[in-house]
Amino acid sequence: MSAAPQDEIHRGRCACGAVSYVLRGPLRPVVFCHCESCRRQSGHIVSATSVPLDRLSVTGAENLGDWQATPDAVRQFCKVCGSHLFWRGHDATSISVMAGSLDTPTGLTPWGHIFVAEKGDYYEISDGLPQYDGRPPRD
């Protein structure tokens, strides 16, 4: 018998293991962000899923560094190895989790691309997923 979606457990960590985390429940499909801030910090695009804040448990939180990415958001990274782990809006009730930091298998699927108006000029997006010049419209 498979676990119910609310019973799903996903684990992840930074490259060195100084920060690890557990996510409980279903994850949002992966969003690819091409904004200048994501590109400059990560070296390319960012791929992230998301969960409500109350479904995230972090071990090694003392090793998390905060960087004020934009006036309304903070990025969190491992202070030991530099791995990018989380992105959170100041008033958000959920947190974005860098998909590449999750242990596999994740079961995640891609949703689409945001901030494509700011993407690098050295690649094309040709996967057929929805693309938005900025933030996508809210449902």
TrEMBL record:
The keyword rRNA-binding does not apply. Keywords: Lyase, Metal-binding, Zinc. The keyword Lyase applies. It comes from the Bacteria. Transmembrane segments: none annotated. One of its GO terms (molecular function) is carbon-sulfur lyase activity. Residues 10-112 form the CENP-V/GFA domain. It holds the Pfam family GFA. Belongs to the Gfa family. PANTHER family: CENP-V_GFA DOMAIN-CONTAINING PROTEIN-RELATED (PTHR33337:SF40), GFA DOMAIN-CONTAINING PROTEIN (PTHR33337). This is GFA family protein.
